[in-house]
# Entry
Amino acid sequence: MAHTFVGGVHPHDMKHLSKDKAIENAPIPKVVRIPMAQHLGAPCKPVVEKGAPVKKGQVVGEASAFVSAPVHSSVSGKVVDVGSYEHIFGDLVTSVVIENDGEDTWAEGLNVETPDIDSLGADELKKRITDAGIVGLGGATFPLHVKVSPPKNKPINSFILNGVECQPYLTADDRLMLEKPDGIIQGLRILCKVVGAKDRYIGIEANKPDAIKVMREAAAKVDPSIKVVALPVKYPQGAEKQLIKAILDREVPSGGLPMDVGALVNNVGTAFATWEAVKYNKPLIERVLTVTGEGIENPKNLLALVGHPIKELLDLCGVKAGANKIILGGPMMGLAQYTTDLVVIKGTSGILVMEGKPVGRYGPCIRCGRCVDTCPMRLVPSRLSVLLEAKNVALAKASNLLDCIECGVCTYVCPAKRPIVQFIKYGKGELRAIQAKERAKAEAKKAQEEEKKKEEATASK
Ligand code: SF4
Ligand code: SF4
# Structure
């Protein structure tokens, strides 16, 4: 078995700042803000109005499409606004603002234990996952009910739980595995039952020996067929295609998905949320995240509510005077922010505060080949960056632009400091816009043709 993948880098993991800090409950905020966009796919539609009372766990935003996930109130209280607010994706997003009444009153039927979950069938399990609004908590935020609904011609035989947490600095998954191993194992069993996967794995990087030990012990108690695999420390070991290659020695084809090779991958936090949804009928209204970085006085792993103001979490951990950069997520794939007027969303795995010098102006490609040697998708990032700098999206697409997993490795190794992954994100955005225009054009043409047919049919009567 390979247990590794091609390319990759070895940045300092910086996990010592927070890895020994047990998960703390963040103080419950007076006001939460629940954005309607917290997942990949169509944003939710708000279903409450200003002034309405809400209970904890109540749906405040309904999924508007199959690839979407409902959002819930993380407190009980009163809706004080439904409007557009800053969002970590950099734009304004419709959000429901709720004033907490401090009563912690759950909506009816929620936070109630189901004694025997083994008797529940796959359809009921999937319904609970869907209703709970679970999305991939590793950062991808893909709705879980969609991921566990592969087409019939793509049977899943292998399920991998991702406990790699290869992003430097972040330790939330590590702490969750140490402190909640049984719930994670139960979540994995539920997910395997839903998709019918017989082979079960948990991949963890070798720099988390305690988590490997704890998860092996927890698995042995319940399901000895679960294999906890210790993986070499290499970034981006936690990317799903790289994890499938390392553990199963299967190659996801270009443009394909893990289901094309009979596999599914989910984060350990997602498995734990699944367990809570099924066992306690608890929607996804909180998550564990790491507040860390050289700019933080007292790094912590926190259990925070969805909608929790980021500023309050920063105040709790203390920001040093010299701190000058905030990133939501890890340093390799996270999103740099220009404001702290933001809230925790389902995909917020970390809040990273840095002290550092600006990178400065980037230079031309010097053809050193480092990005080519380290790209885990075997792309030619230098070529993509040059093409996209020249706005040549069509040629970049032909050079496999869409296979890029945006891991940031090329940008990390580039001595010319070229913002390669930023060029790539720009290119993908342009491509999406072109495709949307083409779709709209084709739909308009179809509508025109149908209209013409109707007119001809009327004329011939
Ligand atoms: S960001 Fe894309 S191009 Fe750059 S190393 Fe990662 S996969 Fe390769
Ligand atoms: S690492 Fe930077 S300078 Fe070197 S080949 Fe790639 S883009 Fe060019």
Notes: The mean pLDDT is 95.
